Amino acid sequence: VREGCNTTTILLHVPRYFNYTEEKLRRIPVDDLKTIIEYKVLNFNAPFLSTPFAKAHSDFYDMVINDIKEPPSRAMICRGQVETSIGELLGSYYLKEVWTADNAARVDSLVLKVKAAFKTGLESTGWFDDTSRANAKTKLSKLTHLVGGPKNPKTYPTLTFDPKAYIANLNKVSAFDSAFTLAQIDTTVDKQIWEKPAQDVGGWTVETRNTIVLNGGLLQPPLFDAKADPSANYGAIGNVIGHEITHGFDKYGSNFDSDGNLNPLWSATVTKTFDEKAKCFIEQYGSMDVKSELTGDLLGKLDGNLTLRENIADNGGLNTAYRAYQEYVHAEAEATKYTKETGEKMFWIRYGQSWCVKNSDKFLLIHLADPHPPGRHRLVGAVQNSVDFAKAFNCPVDSPMNPTKKCVLWGIDTHSQCNTSK
Length: 422
Prior knowledge:
The structure is a single chain. The protein is mostly helical. The protein is 52% helix and 5% strand. It folds into 2 domains: 15-72, no CATH class; 101-153 and 194-392, Collagenase (Catalytic Domain). Keywords: Hydrolase, Metal-binding, Metalloprotease, Protease, Zinc. One of its GO terms (cellular component) is plasma membrane.
């Protein structure tokens, strides 16, 4: 505990790690420990040293361990180092080039509309008891959303860099970041702290802060376009927003309350019902084949248990985004250039396009052990569960994209006429 800190309790996520480490340190001779430390320091800094060190490191870690056929270019190494060391500073320049107040306002409005649609789903979910529903609505009302990038990024104004002392420069940044992190001890939780730089193409949920984050790098075409019709934005980035919100109310996220504390939202009965309904998704996705996009050969099957959390978020996000779009059109009918029918089709087309990707066999094999299924499976699985998609494109009942059995969690079960998973 740092000097002057009043904290007397430290949370250890993996206590056995420290017990194991202590045991090892007692058994390893001091001279061996010195050698290990020397190796660790050298290995950590090797990529930033002269060519012989950098090449030796790359030859082993990139080409042997990670099976990268060609070592990364100097430009790739430099870019990666800038992003990992002073990413927020780089992000501030990125936002000046691409981010506008209009973009921020549009995305903020979109998030609020998707949140409102999710609230509608919570209110109409029949398997909640009153207490669980109230807890969920309170959590949603206190959900923080961050878009674009940090308002006060770390720009390292007190640091001076020597162009001939690269390692020393990195150490200065590391020391600055460590001091910044330690300064957060004994302070209230700052929900405005970003974990990734603005230029990162990503969105994520921070359960312990009841926050969702949408980076500036994500908020660009084809996912978000300020000039596009609302149907396109609801179908693409609207789904991402709904996905991240849903994570806060899945089997893991529901363990955290409106303040991000470990305090389950659901009653035991609601949790049991959730688990029963989740079995439908496990079965659906677990039956999906993963085939080579090059040869068509079977590479394996998805693990429905492993991908469950992402599958639930995909389905919840899509349903919420569609509901939000419907509510938007109802309230602002003149705001879209399309007819109702065309607008709905555009929503689904943009949703589908947001998952367009070309995968190598190696990448697909990696995904077999990843909680995130390949894009094609995420797309197909979610629309198979949507009656609204089937109606928009007149999909015949029991066709591949409109199976009779559909999996539903949130909101009114509009699929009840064909849902065998009750």
